[in-house]
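Re: beginner question about structure tokens

> Can someone show what the tokenized structure looks like for a real chain? I only ever see the sequence side.

Sure, here's an example I had lying around. Input first:
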Amino acid sequence: MFVLALALVLVSAPAVFARAQGEDVARGPTFGARALQALIDGIQFGVIIAITSVGLSLIFGTIHLINFAHGEFVTIGATFAFFLNASAAGPGWHLIPAAIAAVVFGALLGGAVERGIWRPLRARGTGLINMFIVTIGLSLLLRHVVLVLYGTRPASFAQYDIQKAISLGPASITPRDLTVTLLAVLVLLGIAALLQKTRIGTAVRAISANRDLAEATGIDVQRVVLFVWMLGGALAALGGVFFGLVEIVTWDMGFKLLLLMFAGIILGGLGSAYGAMVGSLVIGIVAQMSTLWFPVDLQYAWALLVLIVVLLVRPQGILGRAERVG
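And the corresponding structure tokens:
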């Protein structure tokens, strides 16, 4: 009898222990805690999209070109920093100087593309539709060049990979993600100050409002357009480094972000840098908050659904101006 009782105790003990653990797991994070965590993640995602989309919006505002290759600028910035930082063939720089070098390279790439492709095409009187098709071809070319040089294997930077999260009440965030978010916000505030407080920023806004009138008042339009392309390339590269730091570096990461960039720009208002910031932030928050109810694979779809709903109610976007056609 004693042996039988002991056997029953040994058999039932794991079940009792598992039931106790199951109750702890079932309690888990509350919905409010998960919502706060999703909001923090959404803000971080949104400001990264905003950095990459501001340059794209400024380019459209100055020359009305939809640059389909802008996503590849994001990828090139991330992969260039990875080469300098973590590649076996690279010099092994720390991530901070590697990121600065990537931003400079992105600015030079944007200026080279403007001087070598878009300015000659505009001088020849090439239509915007034809130039848009050229951007698609350039996107495919750059993407596959990155594929050949970088490869298909995802990788991460050498620094700031594994960190202990900082508790923010029921939510948490790593020092890396917090730093990226704060730096992204500071960069966006710097762009806003540049557009409002500097002569070059005033010139950019003047060209966006009326190119012919701006040129008639003595503004060097070609120089301002070159500046916008370089600024857009630098911001795209910086956004690529940030995105690769909080996620992972892949050969098509910029292409995956491109649709969300367009969504943020259209949602905020075409040609408006501030609209791109606001629209991208909304897209990022909606994408992350949707994971509270729906599968992660659908988070981008719900963000685009919000875009459709807003445009049905306000076709010019959140900060766009309504214009008469004809």
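Each token stands for a local structural state, so reading them left to right follows the chain. Residues 1-26 have pLDDT under 50 and may be disordered.
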